[in-house]
Structures are given as C-alpha cells and as structure tokens.
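Standup notes, structure subgroup. Blocker cleared on the adenosine-5'-diphosphate input:
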Amino acid sequence: DAMLELSGITKGYNRGKPAEVVVLRGATVTVAKGEVVALVAPSGAGKSTLLHIAGLLDVADEGTVRLDGREMSGLSDRARTEARRAEVGFIYQFHHLLPEFSALENVVIPQLANGVPKAQAEARARDLLDRVGVAARADHRPAALSGGEQQRVAFCRALANGPKLLLADEPTGNLDPATSDQVFGVLMALVRETGLSALIATHNMELAGRMDRVVRLAQGRVEG
Ligand code: ADP
Ligand code: ADP
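Run returned:
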C-alpha cells in the first residue's frame, strides 16, 4: 500500500519566458506505508522542487500526487494547505526554528495552529523532546542549543501534528560527520517508532544505505 505516489511529475520555472527551465520531466516515485526512501540527486537536479510538490507546497505542471490514496492535484489552495498541515512533516538542512521561542514552544506552536488544546500540545511536545534526548533543553531558545540539538527539536516540530508522511531535505547536512551520524540514528529511531513513511534527500551514501531503498533523480526523472 502506498503512502505517497508521485506519477509523471513535470515542473518548470518561468514557463513561456526566455529564462524557462524545465526541472522535472515525468518523475515517478512511490513511498510505501512505513517505508523510508532515500532520494539521491546531484545539486540542482530538482530535489527541493520534487519534495515541495510531494509536500503540497508547490503544484506540478503535469502529473499526479496521491497521499494515502487521496488524489491531491485537484484540491483548492485552502484544502491543499490544510492537508499539508495535518498530514506532512518537513525537515530542512537548517532548523528554521523560531528564535524568540523555546524548544518546547517551537513544538507546541504548530499543534496550536492545528487546533490542539494547549495542555495536550505541551504534553506531546515534552514526550517528543524526551524521545530525541533533548527534554532537558525544553525551556531554552534555539540559539542556546548545539546544532545537533537544534535538528532534534526540528524533528519534533515536524512530527508534532502526527503527520502521515515525513519529507526531509539533507536533514543532517549542516552537522559534522560524527554528529550527523548520531542525529540521523535518532531520526530513524523516531520514524520507525511512529511507523512513519519518509522521503529523505541526502548526498551521503552511507546514510542512504541505512534507509529501506534508494532512488536517484537525474535529468528530471527518477530511477530505482
Ligand atoms: P536541488 O534541490 O536538487 O538543488 P532545486 O529543486 O532547488 O534543486 O532546483 C532545480 C533547478 O530549478 C535549479 O536549476 C534551480 O536554479 C531552478 N529553480 C528552482 N527554483 C526556481 C525558481 N523559483 N525560479 C526559477 N528557477 C528555479
Ligand atoms: P503555519 O501553520 O505555521 O502557517 P504552513 O502551513 O505555512 O505553517 O506550513 C506548514 C509546513 O510547511 C511547515 O513545516 C513549514 O515549515 C512548511 N513550509 C511552509 N511554507 C514553506 C515554503 N515556502 N518553503 C518550505 N517550507 C514551507
């Protein structure tokens, strides 16, 4: 059973203008339920574009996006935003935590935006922070945390609303090799515990090898 089905995705920028660039040319990717897939691509190949389309942040020119069996292509902007907030978690190379809020608040805020009562949101945030080993830093602002701790908090934020699908773009790419290795282990454990389906872009073949399957994006198409 598929959690994510991207089929025949075509996407270009500046369509019809001199600066037109076609990035995706019929890309097809499936992530099964509970599967963790590595997306490996050279820089500029369209990895971020593909992840944004998969995560309902951007719309393909052609092709279909199915999330948990539901066709997303025809949705209104509002319905797409709602589906994204409730069903997709994002992790980036840089944590993008809100600097003026504590680690805990950074994990609470997306839940409040999703209609979760405050006490329940805080309990869930504490549980998530505990599971990734940063419970002791809950009341600190991001700037007070190490790079690895910041990414762990970003993982908790991505999982805060219990998404069905996790999309990650070089989730440990900003960390030194030893920290990257360790923090990636934390992420994989969290994903496995929650039974999440994930598409994780990385240049690191060692990390790719720790996932269930590797797909490669090149010339706008996906292999493997
Ligand atoms: P990757 O994540 O693999 O590095 P991207 O998906 O960010 O690749 O970008 C793929 C290509 O599309 C690049 O050539 C990039 O310059 C171009 N591109 C990305 N976003 C835009 C945009 N908003 N307008 C024009 N070109 C873009
Ligand atoms: P909020 O509920 O705070 O308004 P959004 O619905 O805008 O959040 O975003 C939901 C998720 O999508 C968040 O994880 C956010 O980081 C991500 N996101 C939103 N807009 C963008 C964007 N332009 N590029 C990358 N990620 C984005």
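Discussed briefly. The CA atoms of residues 103 and 138 lie 5 Å apart.
Next: hand off to the docking folks.
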